[in-house]
Task: structure prediction
Amino acid sequence: MTMNPQALKLANAQHMLHPMIDPKAVAASPPLIIDSAEGVHVVDVDGKRYLDTVASLWNVNVGHGRPELKAAITAQLDKLAYYSTFQNTSNPPAIELSQRLVHMFAPEKMKKVLFSSGGSDAVETAMKLARQYWQLQGKAQRTKFISLKLGYHGVHFGGASLNGNPLFRTAYEPLMPGCMQVESPYLYRNPWGETDPARLAARCADELDRAIQYQGAETVAAFVAEPVQGAGGVIVPHESYWPALRAVCDKHGVLLISDEVVTGFGRIGSLCGARAFGVAPDMMAMAKGINSGYVPLGATLLNERVAGAFEQPGVPAALMHGYTYSGHALACAAANANLDIVLAEDLPANAARVGALLNARLQELLRYPHVGDVRGLGLMAAAELVQSRQSKAPLMMGTPYVQALVAGAREHGAIVRVQGNRLILSPPLVFTPAHVDETMTILHAAFAQAEASVS
Ligand SMILES: Cc1ncc(COP(=O)(O)O)c(C=O)c1O
Result:
């Protein structure tokens, strides 16, 4: 650090725009400036240490400061930082990673990988390749996309057009034509007042079926969804939901794209979310946990059906898509080392085990009158904040209650995130039962402060 903490705070306020927040709110309440990190803890520029209950942004799955990743990145840096994978050049870490991913997702019949720089890129790539797939099949009229209300698929125009939350759409409209959203399997709030998760799953799958028929199946390219909706509030579907989605897509020939940016590489207890629900998608968008955020990286995986269309003899199928940093050598070297850790430490199993404990303990939050619902799967969880249990009216970010909650958590030594009216937890997958205890102690202290602020 060459600037002192005071100078950093001033320069941050003067020069830096922060994603996903009004600049005026940043000026009013300056951000935490994180200076160092180790394991599941981070330290700010003033030297205060926090438990990172959100793995930064659902992504630092193996924890901060892992020597194995540092070694892999520096060893790669000594040989080659970067060489493009456009057209007919390549580099060893990217090749090795593509082979690993295809082997890792052989049960889902994945066959080819196109790299990019992050989750939004991976989704954009899936959307463009879906359209090209249909052109190659001689069905160029299949151009539309259906996704879920409250779904989050990143910030590019394609992904933003899929997003099912007006927050991420309104300021950037008009978005892509031919994109529409159907209801998500959101048990706590759904238009039917359905309280049975299996019946809700069936209703939602039926709505997708009717939406495809209404649009005309011959115009629909793909259905895109997250196995468990993350940013939308950790919406965990019934086990019958994904198999039902697959059946509807198959009935109409529509591609099924699983956005695994959050669920990929172990977060819900399986190497991918689709596997957790026993379904093989046609394409998967991956990022975040692929290398735990040490270097930006995204990957779009294509199954045999989709990849095969590009390999038909005599059919021109140039991929006129890709990024300067597709297959970045440092990012891929980091991913290879990261995936070694994911497998050696069986982090999906740890996420399932410690996640079950976390989700059980989080039920304790229902003792606070402003917590309406608590839900989660593996190491992703949410507590929904409400003005009252009866009204279920959301208690939003920016209200004194939520401000006191977030400030209380920080004061007691944890970084937590509130998105809309949901407190989100998505800790590193190396979380232990002791970290769950630490989280709960801090959350109880923070909730007590938040309740006191409105009583
Ligand atoms: C499910 C999902 N898809 C896509 C994205 C976009 O990823 P990125 O922010 O790396 O572009 C995110 C980011 O949180 C996500 O949660």
Remarks:
- The chain has a mean pLDDT of 97.
- The chain has two domains: 32-62+346-454, 69-344.
- The longest strand covers residues 110-116.
